[in-house]
User: What shape does this take?
Amino acid sequence: MKRRKFLKKSLQTVPVLWTTPSILSSCKKEETSINKTVIVVGAGIAGLAAAQQLKSKGFTVTLLEAQEKVGGRLRSNRSLGIAFDEGASWIHGITKNPITDLAEKAGMQSFYTDDSSRKSYDVGGVLRKTTVYDQVEDEFYDMLDTLMKKGSATQSFQTVFNAQYPTQAKDRLWRFFLSTYLTFDTGDLNQLSSLLYNEGEEFKGIEKIATNGYDTIANYLARGLSVQLNQRVTKIDYTGTKVQVTHNGQTSTADYVILTVPLGVLKKGVIQFVPNLPSAKQNAIQKIGMSCVNKFLLTWQTAFWDDVQYLSYTPEATDKFNYFVNVKKFHPASNALMTFAYADYGRQTETMTDAQVTEAIMAHLKDMYGSAIPNPTNLLRTKWNSNENTYGAYSFTAVGTEMRHFEDLAASLDDKLFFAGEHTEVDYFSTVHGAYLSGLREAGNIIDLQ
Ligand SMILES: Cc1cc2nc3c(=O)[nH]c(=O)nc-3n(C[C@H](O)[C@H](O)[C@H](O)COP(=O)(O)OP(=O)(O)OC[C@H]3O[C@@H](n4cnc5c(N)ncnc54)[C@H](O)[C@@H]3O)c2cc1C
Assistant: This one.
């Protein structure tokens, strides 16, 4: 669902910037040994893609991963018998998207989530007319197309929007679109750049949701790689000929290091750099925003909701359980809904107990379907903002961000220390495909040095 906003427009306007790169074909080639070592920090899709590419070219590659498994923000929880993707769920635009090809090779199954299969409820359980919803959606997209003309480098999207659209700012359906179509895609509207909120390129085609777990791709990419799990990197010293990496109190060295930890981890300063990172990179780390999106999966004994793909609810509260993905559409034997909390409310949920979260979600569902609906039997949830492996969901263009800041994040240092991850990909930041392409990019940069 994320980045739906571009979908309509992208049908006419978006250039295809990439032909699908494939590390998989190169993996099959005979590996000829190159006497060079690489440490990749972080075994998310960026790190795994880089490592596979370098290994296929004969480099000796070791991945250091802080968690107990690979995948990073490709993280699937199967404890309830279906895969609940805690991080990424969708392949955004399947045409020429490198993840489409990769998913097929990895055996990741996916399902077309039909955007037009939807119902929208206002408070009091009032079902909205489709024509009303569709019309406001069109007006919303038109607003997105033009608001940046009124934007400024120092003002947030929210400030400019509220000034230009005071009536809509108070309208519950407009507030829903702002939350689910924009905050979800980007970040907090009171931090989001009023100039750059619409930046980023898109692949064409439909949206598909992973059904057997997005981590299928990570596990596939990890095959044959040397991955050291539960290794938290705390220091990177790139003063000498070789780069020294401190993890769990020990030091490993390599000719090259690719750092793929999320922007949130860089912002926290938990990794010490010797020498300090250049000021341009430090500035970019500070200026680009890190959003918060939390996801919640609830299951019931029986389904009581409409047989459509998406249900929306438009409460007064912002960013609060206003959107439901009907999981039953792609897992017919399950009775599950997935919902979301974004930005400040998303952060707030991380301090709430399971019972409090369930009560808040049920309050919305009861308003939609009546107080007699059954209680859920299970709840799964995420806490991305306090997660020490990410400190947030993904990067976004905050007030003060310039697009060159993404390039500053990607810039390598002394041809020894390289940077990948979704936050380093100027065209496709905040996505799985962006992260993947960034890993290939940095592997290519190291290969080019030989
Ligand atoms: C809730 C949510 C929903 C999303 N939905 C979508 C979607 O539907 N479609 C889409 O395309 N994208 C989506 N994304 C974005 C997508 O998941 C990410 O852009 C992508 O997975 C990032 O990959 P990465 O390799 O850059 O980072 P990560 O996957 O975060 O990998 C970085 C790795 O570094 C590790 N690490 C961190 N600190 C250290 C340390 N000190 N030492 C060693 N290792 C460390 C982490 O554990 C992690 O494994 C979503 C993300 C979230 C959070």
